[in-house]
Specification:
Blueprint: H1 26-50, H2 52-57, H3 60-81, H4 87-101, H5 104-117, H6 119-147
GO biological process, one term: cellular detoxification of fluoride
Main location: membrane
Keywords: Cell membrane, Ion channel, Ion transport, Membrane, Metal-binding, Sodium, Transmembrane, Transmembrane helix, Transport
């Protein structure tokens, strides 16, 4: 079992350890990416089924996937910086699964499409996504520190 560095549980900043991804990690990244992409598709599909009219007007499925991914990546990021999670888990969860679940390109595209339809809608989505993502990441970080 790994121990947390001194000061971490009190909220001190940590220096991230470098990720040494190599060809041996590709399988883990691919597997995580496949599951992350499937999870994103499931979230988008659920959003479309639950409220088709709202889904067409506002990309809340993407918003939900990105917020959930921000929360989870903060948890895994905290664990990784603590060295509780090994390189394979980092490749699978962070680069693969969460990298596929959350995509900046989808965020940018939805923000631009919203802006074209209505600058207010585009601004709300773009700003709201950024704020919600940061708040979700902060919640994940604090929850992880509290539980450790």
């Amino acid at each position: 079992m790994h121990e947390a560095p001194r000061g971490f549980l009190e909220g001190e900043a940590l220096r991230p350890r470098p990720f040494r991804a190599g060809l041996g990690h590709l399988g883990w990244i691919f597997a995580g990416g496949a599951l992350g992409a499937a999870a994103r598709l499931a979230v988008e599909g659920a959003a479309r089924r639950l409220a088709p009219a709202a889904y067409e007007a506002f990309p809340w499925g993407t918003l939900a996937a990105n917020a959930a991914g921000s929360f989870l990546i903060a948890i895994f990021g905290t664990l990784i910086f603590e060295r509780f999670v090994g390189e394979r888990a980092r490749a699978f969860w962070v680069l693969g699964f969460l990298g596929s679940l959350t995509t900046f390109s989808s965020y940018a595209l939805h923000t631009l499409r919203g802006w074209e339809a209505s600058p207010l809608l585009g601004g709300l989505y773009g700003g709201g996504s950024l704020l919600l993502g940061l708040l979700a990441a902060l919640a994940g970080l604090r929850l992880t520190r509290r539980l450790l």
